Amino acid sequence: MLSPQPTAMQDERSPPINDDSGLLDAYSDAVIGALERVAPAVTFIEVEHGAAQGNVQARARQPLRSSGSGFLFTPDGYLLTNSHVVHGAERITVRLSDDNRFAADWVGDDPDSDLAVLRIGSPGALPYGEFGDSAALRVGQVAIAIGNPLGYSKTVTTGVISALGRTLRATSGRLMHDVIQTDAALNPGNSGGPLVDSKGRVIGVNTAMIPQAQAICFATGINTAKWVISQLFSHGRVRRAYIGVSGATVPVATRIVRHFDLRSATEVHVLELIAGSPAAQAGVAVGDRMVAIDGVPIDGIDSLQRLLDAGWIDRDVELQLLRRSTLLRLKIRPVEMPAQNP
Predict the structure, then answer these.
(1) How far is CA 275 from CA 280, 301, 328, in A?
(2) 167-210: pLDDT as tens digits
């Protein structure tokens, strides 16, 4: 027996079939449009770090080669990459998206933010990436990473912004702040490439991944990069203040906090002093515990590093520290942090 055919009323009551093809097409169009805008500006960077002694049989010196990514941010050939990609390089070659190669000139490098600026010469205007605003980002928005992972050039991965305001330890040992976390896959060789939004604006510089984790990757926010670029263009370096101590973050006993009315329950325990440094000249001693500078609490070694920007250079300030059971106030004049050789 044949089953009865559904009536028109039954058809109207039937649940609609879900069709996400429109959404997928819109997502694909957004990604493709972003790539068309920024991909021509993405570069492949080949680096030679000098010669290393070969084995006894070869009796030859071979250059140490590595590679990474970068991207042009002006039409006259300035480009951004990671400091750890090019720091210490003797020769840098930049390959553009059209496979043309150029020798790169060194502009400046800031290991503390893991950023570096290079320049290539070109007879005409070059494609470049437009900067976005990393302060306006929201968790969950689309993030697109472009680079040369494992040597595979022009590779694209997509994901979302997983978190904002992360901190990450740079190779210099300093803590980088306001780092973007994304699940757009990164691999060795992606370093220095752009992280862009769905409109093709650069929102970050890809910098690191967690090798043992899945989809936990990081990028330096583009607003940090803008500041670093302005410093490198103005001074050839990033200016930061320096007092010449190394230390560790330690807790303060509750009774000490209450007795001296301190604003933080942690402090910096001085472990080492650099001879002749501003701290040494001011009378700071190993074992002292720094609690504030010009009234601003020092709740840890990372907050001290963050606090000592260029505005403190060559300015007399008051350093508060605990020495045994006494609160001391010393006059100290921070100087500019010595430049690190590229």
Answers:
(1) 6, 19, 21
(2) 888 888 788 888 999 999 888 888 999 999 999 999 999 998 87
CA distances to 28, 81, 341 from 128, in Å: 22, 13, 28
User: Is residue 203 within 8 Å of 163, Cβ to Cβ?
Assistant: no
- Quick check: do 134-222 and 241-336 share a fold? no
Catalytic residue among 83, 84, 112, 183: 84
Residue 150 CA to its chain's centroid (Å): 20
What fold does the segment set 241-336 form as a domain? Pdz3 Domain (2.30.42)
The domains of the chain are located at 134-222, 241-336
CA 340/CA 107 separation, integer angstroms: 14
pLDDT band at 59 (very low <50, low <70, confident <90, very high): very low
> Does 114 qualify as catalytic in the annotation?
yes
What pTM did the predictor assign?
A: 0.78
Instruction: Tell me what pLDDT residue 152 has.
Output: 84
Give the C-alpha separation, 288 to 305, whole Å. 17
Catalytic residue, chosen from 83, 113, 191, 288, is: 191
Which residue in the list 112, 114, 183, 197 is annotated as catalytic?
114
Residues, the chain: 342
Average pLDDT, the chain: 87
The CATH architecture of the domain made up of 134-222 is Beta Barrel (2.40)
**Active site includes 269?**
no
Q: Is the pLDDT of residue 258 over 90?
A: yes
